[in-house]
């Protein structure tokens, strides 16, 4: 199968956006005034949706997906999660003489708890994988695909409206009561969207309908409006987290327009650079939280300008650590799925 460097670039943008969220969040969560960090934080809301869309694009349009294939993918995820927890276990035993059951730690991680809380994404992915062979069969019929995708997007939009009305009445929003692992209505909406855009017929119709100028115009306007909307609605929600806006129509438009724009272009001159980062993306995702913890003890994250510089320091440091691990045969499996 020919490598799709456009999808690789989308994964890199998503991975970089995860780093942006977790670095700029250090300013956003403590500073109510709109800063450069707020702009980058809400602009990075594409992170998780893009990850799910790319995965859906790749898997839902395969000729056939068997449960044997799915069990293998789930096993790979669990091995990686268990291995990293085993490393933490050994470290704690040596340094603190403290023992944590690695199996329990794996379960914790998959529901957004414990040291590797960012592994909640793998938890959601595992659940979705269980439905992929069934969904893959639906993707043989374009009408069924469109209907199913619209249904889940509709569910997300309804939940977003319910959250708005609940917040107006002083109640907590729906999303805040459901951990990210189990917000399957949202992840399935983006997963199916990715699959839909991976359908050659659908993709070509969309690319022909919206020219490049319109694509840029929609992207820039949706980025700007959604950024302002999220900043102001965060006050109403009494929660600034970007994750609470994934169900919003503005986020859907922003994410879809970016996804389509990246699919348009030929990045042949950047292929080697894209491949380098893309092959270390899982490593960056796993390591960046630890890099942030270490750097936060050395550098202050609370100044917006310095915070912006730290984004690149964290990303490059995580990339370097991942690259080093990838060159060691015994442990390179730690950063590959």
Features:
single chain, about 325 residues, mainly alpha
Can you walk me through this structure?
- By secondary structure, the chain is mainly α.
- Helix content is 71%, strand content 0%.
- It contains 15 helices and no strands.
- The protein has helices spanning 5-28, 36-43, 47-59, 67-95, 102-110, 120-129, 132-138, 142-168, 184-197, 200-209, 212-237, 249-264, 271-278, 281-296, 304-326.
- Helix 1 (5-28) crosses helix 15 and helix 11 runs antiparallel to helix 12.
- The model has no long low-confidence stretch (mean pLDDT 93).
Task: Kindly summarize this structure in a few lines.
Helix content is 71%, strand content 0%. The protein is mostly helical and 337 residues long.
Helix tally? 15
Rounded to the nearest angstrom, the distance between the terminal CA atoms is 18 Å
Query: What's the alpha carbon Rg, rounded to whole Å?
Result: 20 Å
β-sheet strand percentage: under 5%
Give the low-confidence spans: none
Order of helices and strands: HHHHHHHHHHHHHHH
Largest sheet: none
State the shape. Answer: globular
Structural class: mainly alpha
How are the SSEs placed, and which strands pair?
Layout: H1 5-28, H2 36-43, H3 47-59, H4 67-95, H5 102-110, H6 120-129, H7 132-138, H8 142-168, H9 184-197, H10 200-209, H11 212-237, H12 249-264, H13 271-278, H14 281-296, H15 304-326
